[in-house]
Amino acid sequence: MNIVRAQSDSDGLLWEGFVRNSPVATCYHQWNWKRVIEKSFGWPTYYLTAMDNGRVTGLLPLVWQKSLLFGSFLTSLPFLNAGGILADSKEAEKALLEDGLAIARRIGAASVEFRHRESHELGLPVKTNKVTMVLPIHRDPELSWKALDTKMRTKVRKAQSFGMTAEFGGMEFLDDFYAVFADNMRELGTPVYSKSFFSEILKSFPNHTFLCRVRHEGVTVAVSFLCGFRERIEAVWSSSLHSHLRLKPNMFLYWNLLQHFGQQGYQLFDFGRSSIGSGTYAFKQQWGAQPVPLYWDTWLAGGGTELPERNPENPKFKFAIRAWQNLPLSVTKLIGPRIVRCLP
């Protein structure tokens, strides 16, 4: 077993071939995410390939982030919901893990987080407080409608009564998406990604990334950025304007997403990750979505046991979140991308 660092276009072709043939690969294992992260954030990447007699047997994408504020750490993959070790044998998995940890020790990383959708039993501490919420969808919208309970149908009808419209597209909707997304992130007290990040994703996956915008009287009031992979379509980033919540734009948005992508042939709608018991968890659950545990294996330098929490749920960031919510939107758009690039 030999571990090599994939960097060239030819390496990328081998990488993509393995992803294409792996039944448990995710959207985030695709080679072009390397380009997206490097161009959008400038962080070094370590895309490790396990080779056995000239044959690819496993992959591990890693990204190294380092800042004075949050320290030095590796993630597979940051900013996204999955992308951990992908291997066709325990031998390849072990070799990739060992090589990844060797890199962490060499660069002085304090931790490595492997974001998995299934249990790998790596012998590391595991975060299991987050889940992804999934729901089967159908080509026939009537079947999806019948799957909703009476209370949800009433809520959707109420949202439909306000005269909103849903439109689907790509790059041409990016400005609208970003305006609503940035506004919502400020309301949540969370730094916003740069618009170029989303632009790079759209350019790198032109046939499998989609934008939806919901409009009311000429104003975009809700948006969603989605990534498709095989039978699954995932609403990775969705937002609505707080000023228009009386219209229930999220209800209207998600019903149209379920209908549209079911008709496009997708079979599983992924509402994205949530913390168990959170408000977003409850919102997704009412659609009938079922929680699927996420397993984020974490290695800590020095053998510590307290897992790092570099996210808004950490009580240490409560004051910063409140302060951020009171900043002008123009300021959050300017400095937010500089902060969020340092978070996983």
Topology:
Blueprint: E1 2-5, H1 9-21, H2 32-41, E2 45-52, E3 55-67, E4 71-76, E5 86-87, H3 90-107, E6 111-116, E7 126-127, E8 130-136, H4 141-147, H5 150-160, E9 165-169, H6 174-188, H7 195-204, E10 209-216, E11 219-229, E12 232-240, H8 249-263, E13 268-275, H9 279-285, E14 290-293, E15 295-300, H10 318-325, H11 329-340
Parallel strand pairs: 4-6, 12-13
Antiparallel strand pairs: 1-2, 2-3, 3-4, 3-5, 6-15, 7-15, 8-13, 8-14, 9-10, 10-11, 11-12
Counting H and I runs of at least 4 residues, what is the number of helices? 11
Would you give the CATH topology of the largest domain?
A: Aminopeptidase
User: Mind telling me the CATH superfamily name of the largest domain?
Assistant: Gcn5-related N-acetyltransferase (GNAT)
* Shape summary: globular
CATH class of the largest domain: Alpha Beta
As a percent range, the share of strand residues is 25-35%
Radius of gyration: 20 Å
Can you describe this structure in just a few lines?
The chain has 344 residues and is an alpha+beta fold. It has eleven helices and 15 strands.
Verbal overview:
The protein has 11 helices and 15 strands. With 344 residues, the protein is of the alpha+beta class. It has 2 domains: 2-128 and 295-308, Gcn5-related N-acetyltransferase (GNAT) (Aminopeptidase), CATH 3.40.630; 131-292, Aminopeptidase, CATH 3.40.630. The strands form 2 sheets. Strands 1, 2, 3, 4, 5, 6, 7 and 15 form an 8-stranded mixed sheet that branches. Strands 9-10-11-12-13-8-14 form a 7-stranded mixed sheet. Strand 11 and strand 12 form a beta hairpin. The protein is globular.
